[in-house]
Amino acid sequence: GDSVTQMEGPVTLSEEAFLTINCTYTATGYPSLFWYVQYPGEGLQLLLKATKADDKGSNKGFEATYRKETTSFHLEKGSVQVSDSAVYFCALSGDETSYDKVIFGPGTSLSVIP
Amino acid sequence: DGGITQSPKYLFRKEGQNVTLSCEQNLNHDAMYWYRQDPGQGLRLIYYSQIVNDFQKGDIAEGYSVSREKKESFPLTVTSAQKNPTAFYLCASSTPGLAGQETQYFGPGTRLLVL
């Protein structure tokens, strides 16, 4: 079945460091890909998404490119801030008309220290 | 402002007790979901509903029940049959778009603890 794999955390970076969180997926068809972020004690919120191969999603300085050839959707940011400390979830949604087809990865915890 | 509200923020359950978690949305979304989140793990789908008066089991429905009498509301009951209910519960909603592209909108969550 469909699945999402993320790099294990926790990840600890100094402020202004470069961030990469790896995400790979297994899916049939042509899924949409998402990154959600969860700040401490809160629900998830959409960070960015891409709906077809070679699309780049971007938001708040974060970027991710949908790479079908490597089945990847890695999250990057050039210069992290303390306020980016959160848990990041990669997710995919199938191309069938089915509401239950959202699959989340296990999440990667990021801590940014001043 | 449109959004999803969940209450209470913290909920304590005694052994053998049923408890109900509230989820309300004013986004006019058709679909609603309940997820369970355990420490260090991703989200697991408990139940979902695509339309009023209809809902389906997710991956871990045992020990839980739901209702969908109104479009805006999707309460989750954690029954005494759920032997390990301590977790963070998240409600979400979405609206039909191109298949597979729906963004899910999440509430702030309810943390359930067993006394």
Gist of the model:
The complex is a heterodimer of chains A (114) and B (115). Chain A is built from no helices and 12 strands.
Per-chain topology:
The complex is a heterodimer of chains A (about 110) and B (about 120).
Chain A: E1 3-6, E2 11-14, E3 19-21, E4 23-26, E5 32-38, E6 44-50, E7 56-59, E8 62-65, E9 75-77, E10 86-93, E11 102-104, E12 108-113
Parallel strand pairs in A: 2-12
Antiparallel strand pairs in A: 1-4, 3-9, 5-6, 5-10, 7-8, 8-9, 10-11, 10-12
Chain B: E1 4-7, E2 10-13, E3 19-25, E4 31-37, E5 43-51, E6 54-57, E7 64-66, E8 76-78, E9 87-94, E10 105-106, E11 110-114
Parallel strand pairs in B: 2-11
Antiparallel strand pairs in B: 1-3, 3-8, 4-5, 4-9, 5-6, 7-8, 9-10, 9-11
Write structural notes for this entry.
The complex is a heterodimer of chains A (114) and B (115). With 114 residues, chain A is mostly beta strands. Chain A starts with a strand and ends with a strand. Chain B is an all-beta fold. Chain B is 0% helix and 49% strand. In chain B, the strands form two sheets. In chain B, strands 2, 4, 5, 6, 9, 10 and 11 form a seven-stranded mixed beta sheet that branches. Chain B has a four-stranded antiparallel beta sheet with strand order 1-3-8-7, with no helix packed on it. Chains A and B meet through strand 5 and strand 6 of A and strand 5, strand 9 and strand 10 of B.
